[in-house]
Model the fold of this input.
Amino acid sequence: MTAYVKPADLAEACAARASHPDYLLLAGGTDYMVGVLHKDAPAGVIDLFDLPGLRGIERRDDAWRIGAATTYADLLRHEELCAELPLLAQCAREIGAVQIQERGTLGGNMGTSSPVGDTLPCMLALNAVIHLASAEGERALPYDGFCTGYRQIAARPDELIAAIELPRPVPGVQFWRKVGTRKAQAISKVMVAASARRSGETLSEVRLAMGAVADRPVRLKATEALLEGQAPSAELAEAVRAQVAEEITPISDVRSTAPYRLFAAQNLAARFVLEQCS
Ligand SMILES: Cc1cc2nc3c(=O)[nH]c(=O)nc-3n(C[C@H](O)[C@H](O)[C@H](O)COP(=O)(O)OP(=O)(O)OC[C@H]3O[C@@H](n4cnc5c(N)ncnc54)[C@H](O)[C@@H]3O)c2cc1C
Done:
């Protein structure tokens, strides 16, 4: 029989995690429930859905703090957040359909850390910091490096993801595109998230990230360097298209082929540049 724990707050959740590191953390359940009949039942479940202290959005002077159990629908209902972080809003709007958006959480997407998790490249492009909580307290890790391998994250078995912190963006541009088999309800074949400061004609502090092109989300640092300090132009878009091919080596699998993934990734990165041309 699977044990079920419903903590009243974050402190209780951390205590339960410390006592039962083998129990499953369950948020919206939209990842976990897929294929549940073919999985061994967990020893127990710690239910984090709607947990006070873990769900909610707080605007601070320098950053947004989003509780890990915040759903995509919560994000989309927050007009100020959507206005300041349009790339995250666009991404949330394209995840599953309304039912998934009402249940699925940001922390669940990070917890699964699937290469096709749509928010993962957004976290890189927005320079996210992950707050991990345990009975010992909280620690913060940059999201860049938080995914340590295929569906692996840098959290200890006694920790849970408490919140995601996103620096308030500087005046500039944000970009999000995902390519799937169809326009809605599609698992991504490739996704691109980017942000940059824009001063006059030039781009700086460029962060260009992709998902589904490796075992974890990746930043294309050489392409970012190519864009740094440059004014967007058709020539620059072509140079970016070529550089992307140097930086990623997608694989073929059930969802797409390596050549198609590369072609789409190049097009999306070039489109990011072309959309900034004045
Ligand atoms: C029909 C359908 C469509 C979907 N479409 C998309 C899509 O378009 N894009 C996309 O990216 N995903 C999609 N998903 C996958 C899923 O909805 C998302 O990954 C969602 O964000 C998972 O959140 P959840 O709260 O439901 O996670 P859960 O299923 O509750 O948990 C997922 C994993 O994360 C762990 N976890 C949960 N919360 C925490 C925490 N606070 N700390 C540490 N670990 C934690 C759990 O232990 C589990 O391993 C889809 C799923 C379905 C069923």
